[in-house]
Amino acid sequence: MACGAVAALLSAGGAAAATPAGKAPAWKTSATFGLETIYDDNFLRYSDDYLDVFHAGTDPYKFKIERQDCHILAPSLEVEARRDLIALGETRLRFRWKRWQYVQEPIKTNSGYSWYVRQFLPGGRSCELSYSYAPEQYIRQLSDEPPWEAPSHPLVWDEFRYTRNEFALVYRDRFSRDLTWKLDLSRTLRYYNQPFMENDIFSWGARGTLSWRARADWRLTFDSGFEHGPARGYDEVGESLDSSDNSDPSYDMDLYQVEAAWSPKWARSAFTSLALSGQYQAYWYTSQKSLDADPYHVGRKDNVYALELTLSRPLAGGVDGVFGFKFSQRTVDSPWQGDIAEDKDYDQRRYWIGLTYKL
């Protein structure tokens, strides 16, 4: 799939090269190759209590991994073709592929594919359509009560996986030379494997971004977003969300993010940008069932925090490097007096070095 998309875009560039001498090529193409090496200290985002169970080895059926941390190799390829197709401005076609290869725990290995069409408009504006696809990827082992079985039937522990399809429309504009904004509207379809199909999510999202160049070497970026994620909530023929005996993982999510990036000219030989960002997401689960019927979701709120620091700098031979650290944390509030916090709370740290080379 990746090779076909690359060939299609590069063939456009090849056709352009055949234009008569003296004329500018109709298409301009470029390719960017990337490779990240990542260390993740909790790659399945297990809680401390869950990690204690894992290391104790008392419930082996709950795990298909050998360790809690993992080294990840993440190669990527991005190909772009540009041309003035209409009088309004340049048209850009872009394809991106990235793979996350979990070296010690290949069960988590996954890939992502994205296609973009961006049309530039007068006054520095642009409009972009995109589609992203992530094939089925592993989350963790999860217990399931098979349909048609009696409540007394033992729980079955299966691989919990999902596939993601995302469609997006992005509009970019500027208030002034130093103040730009962006609006991102999205539709995401997440399909889980058959034993857990009641968790399928069909969400709508909106996110606004304001970017301000406060000084020549300082840029501040503010993001705010909202996502409405209704779930399927049933897994049997003839059921509906209201009549189902399954849980309802439907949610609404609020997102807030701020980033400060510093790019001093005098330091460009050492680094081109130093960026620090903080993000907060609040997931409000909206199940209308009783607490006894759906204790994992009724009245539940997830607080997800992330802090990220990156340093970008040029390396030898046209290669650019990025050095990064990210800390993530989730805490859960719930009226249920069970073990949900012990199951869902987690801390995660990632460290990485990334290299990119553009042709």
Entry keywords:
globular, single chain, 359 residues
Summarize the topology.
Elements: H1 2-17, E1 28-40, H2 48-56, E2 70-86, E3 89-102, E4 110-121, E5 125-144, E6 156-176, E7 179-192, E8 201-215, E9 218-229, E10 251-262, E11 273-285, E12 301-314, E13 319-333, H3 340-344, E14 346-358
Antiparallel strand pairs: 1-2, 1-14, 2-3, 3-4, 4-5, 5-6, 6-7, 7-8, 8-9, 9-10, 10-11, 11-12, 12-13, 13-14
Condensed summary:
The protein has three helices and 14 strands. The chain has 359 residues and is mainly β.
SSE ordering: HEHEEEEEEEEEEEEHE
Strand-pairing-aware structural class: mainly beta
Q: Low-confidence parts, pLDDT < 50 over ≥5 residues?
A: 12-19
> What percent of the residues sit in helical stretches (DSSP H or I)?
under 10%
Arithmetic mean pLDDT: 91
Tell me the overall shape. globular
**How does the major sheet shape up?**
14 strands, antiparallel, barrel
CA-atom Rg in angstroms: 23 Å
- Note the beta-strand portion: over 45%
Helix tally?
3
* Distance between the ends: 21 Å
Number of strands: 14
Give, in spatial order, the strands making up the sheet with the most strands.
Answer: 1-2-3-4-5-6-7-8-9-10-11-12-13-14
